[in-house]
């Protein structure tokens, strides 16, 4: 499977995001999902076979990390996509905080 088709699946994109800056064990990755370890393991295999993650084995543990260099331009696209989502989340959090403080858009004191 090519890299673009591999990242088309939302769980695989989330796995990539998790291992973007840090190496995680398969178990640590699986803990973050509401599917079986086997399902996460299959996603990891697709990512590995597509060259999107590297695998390091230490004893019985398997550790995964995004291989940004191998991704080429896809790495920039994924990073910008996650940054845009974080920007949106930050804007929503700031808006909620303004409402809690009684800032613009707050209707406290308005007549019914």
Automatic annotation (TrEMBL):
<dbReference type="InterPro" id="IPR036390">
    <property type="entry name" value="WH_DNA-bd_sf"/>
</dbReference>
<dbReference type="Pfam" id="PF01022">
    <property type="entry name" value="HTH_5"/>
</dbReference>
<dbReference type="InterPro" id="IPR011991">
    <property type="entry name" value="ArsR-like_HTH"/>
</dbReference>
<protein>
    <recommendedName>
        <fullName>HTH arsR-type domain-containing protein</fullName>
    </recommendedName>
</protein>
<keyword id="KW-0804">Transcription</keyword>
<dbReference type="InterPro" id="IPR001845">
    <property type="entry name" value="HTH_ArsR_DNA-bd_dom"/>
</dbReference>
<keyword id="KW-0805">Transcription regulation</keyword>
<feature type="domain" description="HTH arsR-type">
    <location>
        <begin position="1"/>
        <end position="93"/>
    </location>
</feature>
<dbReference type="InterPro" id="IPR051081">
    <property type="entry name" value="HTH_MetalResp_TranReg"/>
</dbReference>
<dbReference type="InterPro" id="IPR036388">
    <property type="entry name" value="WH-like_DNA-bd_sf"/>
</dbReference>
<keyword id="KW-0238">DNA-binding</keyword>
